[in-house]
Amino acid sequence: MSDEELLWRASFMPRIKKYPFNRVPKIAFMFLTKGPLPLSPVWERFFDGHQGLYSVYVHSLPSFDAEFPPSSVFYRRQIPSQVSEWGKMSMCDAERRLLANALLDISNEWFILLSESCIPLYNFSVIYHYIKKSKYSFIGAFDDPGPHGQGRYNESMAPEVNLTQWRKGSQWFEINRKLAVNLVEDITYYPKFEQFCRPACYVDEHYFPTMLTIQASNLLANRSITWVDWSRGGAHPATFGSADITEEFFTRIYEGHECRYNDQPSSICFLFARKFAPSALEPLLQIAPKVVGF
């Protein structure tokens, strides 16, 4: 299908809410990557034994040909893709393409966007129940009054998007099926962002947070569940290699955070973390049973 056909098909929603079959809700794990998935052994171990509760989708460069064995959870999970560039609308196009493919499976209820440098911080059961029991979807949508927030707003986006509605957030999100449909069916906000949010306005930081704030702010937890380290400064977060993978490192990720979960204070704020280099794979596999739980 073309993107136009795919998004149209994925926008269908059942009018009768009671399913006429036994539907076990699944999490769609959507990987947005240039090519290889160097941390795939970590994810293979994470998914092991939980068939029927998850789906996997991979959007890579069109030229990349994955060579996973039939036994792999990533086997033939690449979707038809196109080139996507950081900070440009093609990045959001890729994310919508992932959502649309995942929406075609009626059992997918929750949708998580991940990169090839992401790892899970808990075992599958913990993450599944955390997401299943949440009243909200996890996407950051902040009103940033500075030059990298409101300073990127273009008045030409009005009246569809006003400055008071302009939001910023991480592109790594978790949303439910209703919000996923909202994103793939959009023909109102997309043209405005495509035309008026170009570098130094980075559309992947603003389009989804702003649109969902306008349409369904009451359904957003207004935070990401993917941990990153921005303490080193620069346009991109820190990358961690083999020397960084210690129990002390994970203690820093797990402890010292406060957030709200279902309107109550919680110390479990992050379910995933990034960015991890390929060299981190072996120490991650060694430390995972003790620290992560799988």
Automatic annotation (TrEMBL):
GO terms for molecular function: glycosyltransferase activity. It is found in: Membrane. Its main location: membrane. It is a single-pass type II membrane protein. It comes from the Eukaryota. InterPro entries: BC10-like, Glyco_trans_14. Keywords: Glycoprotein, Glycosyltransferase, Membrane, Transferase. GO terms for cellular component: membrane. This is Core-2/I-branching beta-1,6-N-acetylglucosaminyltransferase family protein. It comes from Gossypium mustelinum (Cotton). The lineage of its organism: Eukaryota, Viridiplantae, Streptophyta, Embryophyta, Tracheophyta.
